[in-house]
């Protein structure tokens, strides 16, 4: 998983074939977001603010499942 510079998000990973985005939060653990286009993942990696991008473009926009 690529580590990112964020006070809230520790790592992100993407499964292109399945369009799954895995996000590891520093405080609340890991979540999977389903149906995320690759372009959104790439923009997420390159966003000036990882947390702001997550809140505006990912959070509450894709089906989500908490990972153990």
TrEMBL record:
<dbReference type="Pfam" id="PF13619">
    <property type="entry name" value="KTSC"/>
</dbReference>
<dbReference type="InterPro" id="IPR025309">
    <property type="entry name" value="KTSC_dom"/>
</dbReference>
<feature type="domain" description="KTSC">
    <location>
        <begin position="6"/>
        <end position="62"/>
    </location>
</feature>
<protein>
    <submittedName>
        <fullName>KTSC domain-containing protein</fullName>
    </submittedName>
</protein>
